[in-house]
Amino acid sequence: MGLPALEFSDCYLDSPQFRERLKSHEAELDKTNKFIKELIKDGKALVQALKSKFPADGRETSLQVAAPSSRELQDTRRARIIQKPTAPEAKKKYDKETEKYCGVLEKHLSLSAKKKEAHLHEADNQVDNVRQHFYEVSLEYVFKVQEVQERKMFDFVEPLLAFLQGLFTYYHHGYELAKDFNHFKTDLTISIQNTRNRFESTRSEVESLMRKMKENPHEHKSISQHLMEGYLFVLEKRSFVSTWVKYYCTYHREPKRVTMVLFDPKSGGKMGEEESFILKSCTRRKTDSIEKRFCFDVEAMDRPGVITMQALSEEDRRLWMEAMDGREPVVAQLDVIGFNVIKKFIYAVETRGIDEQGLYRIAGVNSKVQKLLSLTMDPKTCADVELDSPEWEIKTITSAIKHYLRVLPAPLMTYQYQRSFIKAAKMDNPETRVTEIHTLVHRLPEKNRQMLELLVNHLANVASHHHQNLMTIANLGVVFGPTLLRPQEETVAAIMDIKFQNIVVEILIEHHERIFQHVPNSADGPNNMLSNQSRRRSTESKAPSCSERPLTLFHTPTHSQKGMNTAVSVNVSTSATSPSPASPRSPSWPMFSAPSSPHPVSSASSDSSPVSVSGRKAIALYACKAEHESELSFIAGTVFMNVHASREPGWLEGTLDGRKGLIPENYVEFL
């Protein structure tokens, strides 16, 4: 009758298409039952009419002749009775198990991940048992439907054929009709016999396959290399309330297309409208970021936002993520690992492909970029990554740099100063524009400024090869502007300011030496020269044990200091090449430059011999955070009492608020 075959493997997927095929088989059986019922009714009427037409003396003979036909008619009725109970009873059991399984599954998926492990393990086992029972009932029901569908071809037609044969024999006037029917009867008899033989030969094999699938369901699940399908719960916001909606999802790997159909077997199998989108990325969702288990996030190329999905189990989530080339979440921070990774990437770009055309403009393959970042950000695998390998193309490395900057918790130039940089870029005077940006850069947190300097120096090097790579300063501004100065919220004003973000990056690249190698001039007092000279970065010295960047001197000089400023300035400039004292307690800074450390100031001499400082007052030029109990924490402008030399080289001892402690010698000036 042209009905599609019911595959046992579809019982495990339980897809909407499988339910539709099952419905079509059930409808066909109901149609056959009605037809048999009407045919039996017509046959009984025919036999009754034959009995009433013959005279009384010939009724016995007619009844004797008609008796075989009545028996064959009863056989036809039995054929209908055989298949009739299958529909209501087996279907009722199947629907009941479907509703029970779906209810248990939804209740199980609603369990909080914060439950005890034993409770979750017990719940998982319970769901597995219910799922296994549902699969067995589904297999048995499909087997029964297939059996009845095949059996009716001979259990019904064969008695009907016998009835017609008896009827045609009974009719003396229907001899010619019976003769014409003879060839059809012969063909039909052969066809029935072949169908019976085929059924008997395949029934045992089908039953054996069903038993194997019951025993080892996982081995017989159909897993395609090009297709992944199954049920997923999708987090949706409806009427300001977040709810989980059940979809039957299909993912085709070749075009990366995800298709979702709203379908719930409990609601009678009503299908909703089909939705589809092109997959952009897939990321596992951390358990501590969402209350539900088995979740992952997907991004689409043709629709905004992130779609959160929940799989049916951990194994199911693993299969979905493998099909979608999913990745683990990458955590980017301005820490030791982050600086190491970026330095490693920049070195690879500058040594391997700085002349490559379209550098930073041509994007790499997303899956390769995620893989590279995952390997390099993982302390266990970072040492094994060889960027010289042909596996890592230059476009993959440059895309990894951009992606790292994009996934930072805050943009490199911070949300705090984002508007200030934009305002500076809008200034009319070019010199004022550069000066303002210069000042803002030195207000950034130390790690942000160091990473920005590392990146901008690299981009300046890239721009110097623009004749080969075609990446001018303007092109680099277009690429990095929205990344380094991304707004906290996407507004119309933010979109209009994109061009000014690009201008800021262009200024940073074009004036990188001035911006990063010189501290901006301060107009707060005569200590300007001292402050600028003291904060100049030294590549030959290590910092004292202060983890913060020295702040600009803000105290107002006294009359006794005014006469010292000239001598102090000269002394600072002449001693700029001498290394500053190193502390045995000072931390190492292996991943990025240490904070600037000012050089000792002395009006007595410019050599490196210690100065007698017993019992004098001193004022802090910079802020410092203590890293040991023996040290003092202070801010710029703090006055220390009873300052004298310490046994520790490069350190002084002083008193602050009645507490004695160590002070970095090159962070103070004596009064």
Write a structural description:
With 671 residues, this protein is α+β, with helices and mostly antiparallel strands. It has helices at 10-13, 16-53, 59-83, 86-109, 117-155, 157-170, 175-215, 314-323, 336-352, 366-377, 394-406, 418-425, 430-441, 446-463, 466-469, 473-484, 492-496, 498-510, 512-517, 528-534, 559-562, 565-574; strands at residues 227-238, 241-252, 257-263, 271-284, 295-300, 306-310, 616-620, 639-645, 651-656, 659-664, 668-670. The longest helix has 41 residues, at 175-215. The relative contact order is 0.05.
Summarize the structure.
This protein has 671 residues and is α+β, with helices and mostly antiparallel strands. The chain contains 22 helices and eleven strands.
Summed up, the helix count is 22
Average pLDDT: 77
Looking across the biggest beta sheet, what order are the strands in? 1-2-3-4-5-6
The biggest sheet amounts to: 6 strands, antiparallel, barrel
Report the portion of residues in β strands.
5-15%
Q: Using the alpha-carbon principal axes, give the shape.
A: elongated
Distance between the termini: 107 Å
Which regions contain 5 or more consecutive residues with pLDDT less than 50? 57-68, 80-85, 523-613
Output the radius of gyration. 43 Å
The total beta strand count reads: 11
The class by helix and strand makeup works out as: alpha+beta
Q: Bin the helical content.
A: 40-55%
